[in-house]
Amino acid sequence: MPRCGLPTFCGRTFRATTCARRWSSSDRARGALVDAEPQVTPSAAEAPRKSDLGVRLASAVVMLAIAGAAFWAGGLWLDLFVAVVALGVFVEYVRLVGKIADSASRLSSMVIFGAVYVGWGGLALAVMPEPLMLAVLGLVICTDTGAYFTGRSLGGPKIAPKISPSKTWSGLLGGMAAAGIWASLVVFSASYLVSAIGPTGASVAAALEVANLGMAAIAGAVLAIFAQMGDFYESWLKRRAGVKDSSRLIPGHGGLFDRVDGLLPVAIIVGTAWAATQAGL
After folding, report:
1. pLDDT tens digit sequence for 42-64
2. By Cβ atoms counted within 10 A, which residue in 97, 182, 205, 276 is the most buried?
3. 109 and 133 in contact (C-beta within 8 Å)?
4. Domain assignment present for 56
């Protein structure tokens, strides 16, 4: 066996790393020294991303199909769909706070708050007429989409990096702008929405007649802020619980709570306003 020299560098002695490696008995038996590390090619590194994108798209198609079927059926089926989603969100919420609460009293208070928060949001959606529910869903989707693409394109200062590192002020403004445009379009086509609501939408029709596009844009932008607050609240819960997603129920998308975190506060505000209008308040 060759001997390893002891070269001196900068006054210190180091064992030579370029000399012949020591051979173990098992190495001799195999007749080879195995010290190579696996190489990761670019195609191999990109494969999980492509695979994840496919899973996300497939899951999105399934979610849209289920939600579309519920809206198409309407009535009791739509109410049942909202109730099932709300129940699933509450279960995920309880699992999150169960990892956060450090005492029974705190756990109880957080569970009670979650029951009110999620239950109120679900009930608010259930009492809305279907066109109004679609308008609310569209506003939240526009908020998320506008925030994502604006924040990704412009970047800039983070809003709360310790809670949600990807959220930027530019993204918030982009989401507000997108929501404002959506709300303006909804008001612009108010006659069609009111006719779809039917006789029960008389009070809403009166409100829409005096509303202008500017006020609608402001209302949409304000609702976008509440949607982002709901997103931050869930991000805070997940950060405290040490998890990335509320669950793994939806492949590539996380849990139900991850999908409706921004919808809940907007639904509470709009649904409560709708109920108050119907009650003549």
Report:
1. 444 334 445 577 787 888 888 88
2. 182
3. no
4. no
- The Cα 86–Cα 73 span in angstroms is 19
Confidence of residue 2 (pLDDT cuts 50, 70, 90): very low
Look at the block and give the residue holding tokens 């708050």.
113
What is the token pair recorded at 260?
């409706």
Which among 168, 184, 281, 167 has a CA at the least distance from the CA of 223?
184
Contact 168, 158 (CB under 8 A): yes
Provide the token pair at 31: 């007749």
Domain that holds residue 216: 73-278
Q: Residue 167 is encoded by which pair of tokens? A: 């959220």
Q: Rounded to an integer, what distance in angstroms lies between the CA atom of residue 132 and that of residue 130?
A: 5
Element (H, E) at 197: helix 190-197
Record the pTM. Answer: 0.74
Domain presence at residue 36:
no
- Look at strands 8-9 and 12-13 and give their pairing: antiparallel
How does pLDDT run across 249-275, given as a tens digit for each residue?
A: 888 788 899 999 999 999 999 999 999
Q: What total number of domains does the chain contain?
A: 1
**What count of Cα atoms within 13 Å lies in the side-chain half-sphere of residue 164?**
21
